[in-house]
Design a protein that fits this description.
Elements lengths: L10 H24 L11 H13 L4 H8 L3 H13 L3 E6 L2 E9 L1 H11 L4 H8 L4 H25 L11
Antiparallel strand pairs: 1-2
Helix pairs in contact: 3-4
């Protein structure tokens, strides 16, 4: 004998699964339409990206300090810094605290490059579509995605879930 509703998911949980599936389908479509198509990973080598990203997190360093942090030969890091400086992404400057040391730091172009490099979606393609939306829909779009991320943050805080355990390589 079955009891009516026994074994069924609660309505709230069923609704959450329904909305999650709808969002996932919509996200697939959005990603396919708006992902970057500019070959961003061909611009610089992984080692060059590592140097830029490391500097962005640490602040100005000497070539020797970077070599130690990145576990690379100083000559290799020096060559990478020279290449990136030639592209205008890094600059060498005297350490104000010790004039014998030379620090390497990101230029404004280097900081802008990292900002663009982190973009998954094309801001230009998104802006073209967003321009056609009503102000209310624009606000709802951003508010909804922020609410989704905030809900996941709350879940992680209450479950002590490691945020990197669910990430997949890109």
């Amino acid at each position: 004998m079955e009891i009516d509703g026994a074994g069924d998911e609660p309505d709230e949980e069923r609704d959450a699964v329904r909305v999650a599936r709808a969002f996932e389908r919509a996200y697939q479509q959005a990603y396919l339409r708006f992902h970057r198509r500019d070959g961003k990973h061909a611009e610089l080598s992984g080692a060059s990206r590592a140097v830029l990203t490391h500097l962005a997190h640490t602040g100005p360093l000497t070539v020797g300090e970077m070599a130690q942090h990145l576990d690379r030969a100083q000559s290799v890091v020096s060559d990478i810094v020279t290449q990136l400086a030639g592209k205008g992404l890094l600059a060498r400057e005297r350490d104000p605290a010790n004039g014998r040391r030379t620090l390497v730091w990101l230029t404004d172009d280097g900081l802008a490059f990292l900002d663009r490099d982190r973009e998954v979606l094309s801001v230009d393609l998104l802006a073209r579509a967003v321009a056609l939306m009503t102000p209310q829909d624009r606000a709802a779009l951003v508010r909804g995605v922020r609410a989704l991320v905030a809900a996941d943050d709350e879940h992680r805080q209450t479950t002590d879930e490691n945020p990197t355990s669910r990430r997949t390589p890109t």
